[in-house]
Amino acid sequence: MNIYEQQSDNKRMTWLIVSAFVFFFLLIGFGFDVFVLGTRMGPSAQADLEYAAYNGHSRPAPLNRTGFPIGTAVALIAGAVMVFNSSSNGPRMVLQSSGAFPADPNNPKHRQFLNVLEEMHIASGLPMPKAFVIPDPDPNAFATGFSPDNSYVAVTEGLLDSLNREELQGVVAHEMSHIRNLDIRLMTMVAALAGAILLISDFALRMGGMRRGSSRDGGGKGNALGLILWLVVLILAPLITNLMAMAISRRREYLADASAAELTRNPMGLASALEKIRSASSPTRSIRQGVAHMCIEDPRGAAAEDGSGFFADLFSTHPPVAKRIEALRAMAYIK
Amino acid sequence: MTIALIVLGVLAAWLIFTFNGLIALRNQVQNAFRQIDVQLKRRHDLIPNLVNSVKGEMKFEQDTLEKVIAARGAAVSASAGGKMSEISKKEGELSSALGRLFALSENYPNLKSSDAVRTLMEELSSTENKIAFSRQFYNDLVTGFNTKQQVFPTNMISAMLGFTAAELFELPENSAERENPKVDLSV
Predict the structure, then answer these.
(1) Using an 8 Å Cβ cutoff, are A149 and A169 in contact?
(2) Which of B119, B125, B133 has the CB atom closest to A122's CB atom?
(3) Which residues of chain A have pLDDT under 50?
């Protein structure tokens, strides 16, 4: 796959993800309408008569009398607002939370980082990203931003201290590839959506619990089954979206490694950088787990590596470093 | 009559699209060349500083230093001439002269401990990389531009529209970068 196919693939993936999430938002909101607010869409006079004939008393008025699906609308709007907010402010918040500051051209180490970044900006033909340094002794790096025109690359001080020029170039090329392949947009979007789902389903679950405790109206057998299904969706939605985010993230890592090799034409630089980053086993404390999918290597450190079973693989943002190094060595024709 | 009109319209649309596409590519190629040019100029500016600051320490390498200065002079006048093949030849020679200077400087540990020299070395090796990467980017664009002109059916009209194949930025035949690296394992 060349770069354009990868970009369009990523754009398609973004749309797919967004529609999957919209479906979840709709499901949660609609369930809230039906089971908690008792919203009745469509003509309800006939239903009222049937209810009265069957139960011997008239059907109680629902919490939401308007017939307009308020829950669904609120879920969609809240989701949209959260996603818009975090995709426009997300990059700045991520940088702030890690304590990153702009690289200083007078510091020799930072100067080298700036030079390497400029080299990769030339090799890729993309606009120059803004360079940030994170005061943390553990080697790690990440890229963020919403488009190549407005992107950031941040590295830790530990990375600048422990890597040589070629290795640093490999890492910066990897981050530059995340920018070029539009991974930063996809991942920012996925993180924002996953966060919104978590919040909304949590809210619906709490509200649903309170409401259901206080009244028991409008329940038929079909309704009860629907209610159970809805509760299952509420509980599983954050888990499923999280798994989706992880799976996408792992795929993007291999691609970014490959494009980094294409940019530098030197896969061994990145391979030996990964080797060094892995051997520094301590976690990167200043990078929160929420940003993990944007980093060169999982900030949890070696702890995330060791459990290499099926479940550990399922819940990790990065493929095992050993596999990544193997792929890079294959590119350099070293077996 | 209608059919003839439709065919004519399609032909005109194709001509316009092809022409505009080629213009866009040609501008990208020219812009990429200017990027190489910027880095080459920067290298020309950095070299006198480097030579001045290592001259005292490397007085036994007068020959190498003079070669670097001479190669720089030739490259500057080639870039003033603006002829592509000449520029790439002279710049290639400058690259190999600089490479020798860098290799020799490894023998002078005093140089490495000097901050000023270290900064200059970093700047120069970064500039070397930038030249290599901008050349890589330029050559990729030129290949795309030339391919676009030479494939059927564009090849029937590209010359008529005034497009010619762009020149790759290649290393000269006898450049040091083309030679196989010699590995000396004697201690």
Answers:
(1) no
(2) B133
(3) 213-219, 304, 306-307
Closest Cα in chain B to A107: B119
CA distance A223 to A217: 11
Residue A77 tokens read as 């709007």
Measured CA distances, A108 to A113, B115, B117 (Å): 9, 9, 12
Q: What is the mean pLDDT of chain A?
A: 79
pLDDT of residue A211: 57
Question: Which of residues A202, A217, A243 is at a domain's end?
Answer: A243
Only one residue has tokens 């000097």, namely B114
Are both A29 and A167 inside the same structural domain?
no
Confidence class for position B187, pLDDT limits 50, 70, 90: very low
- Tokens 């990467």 identify what position? B133
CA dist B160 → B16, B20, B143, B147 (Å): 13, 14, 20, 16
Residues A204 and A300 in one domain: no
Which pTM value belongs to this model? 0.77
Say whether A118 and B126 touch across the interface (CB within 8 A).
yes
Q: Which residues, 6 or more positions from B178, have their beta carbon under 8 angstroms from its beta carbon?
A: B171
* Domains with residue ranges and CATH for chain B: 2-170 (1.20.1440.20)
- A143: helix, coil or strand? strand
Q: Does residue A224 share a domain with residue A138?
A: no
- Based on the number of CB atoms within 10 Å of its own CB, is B109 exposed (0-12), middle (13-18) or buried (19 or more)? exposed
Asked if A119 and B126 come within 8 Å (Cβ–Cβ), the reply is yes
Q: Where does the pLDDT of residue B117 fall: very low under 50, low under 70, confident under 90, or very high at 90 and above? A: confident
Instruction: Report phi then psi at A186, rounded to 5.
Output: -55, -45
Q: Does B119 touch chain A (CB under 8 A)?
A: yes
Q: Are A204 and A310 members of one domain?
A: no
Task: Give the model's pLDDT for residue B184.
Answer: 55
Distance CA B134, CA B126 (A): 12
Number of independent structural domains in chain A = 2
- Asked about A157 being catalytic, the answer comes back as no
| CATH code at position A302 | 3.30.2010.10
Range of the domain at A136: 103-183+248-331
What is the bridge-based pairing of β-strands A130-134 and A150-156? parallel
Contacts of A34 (CB under 8 A, 6+ apart): A223, A226, A230
Cα distances from B44 to residues A174, B50, B111, B124, in angstroms, run 31, 11, 21, 10
Contacts with A118 from chain B: Cβ below 8 Å: 126, 130
ipTM value: 0.74
Final residue before a domain boundary, out of A243, A261, A292: A243
Q: Tell me if A98 is assigned to some domain.
A: no
From CA B3, how far away is CA B9, in angstroms rounded?
Answer: 10
CA angle A78, A82, A85 (to 5 degrees): 140
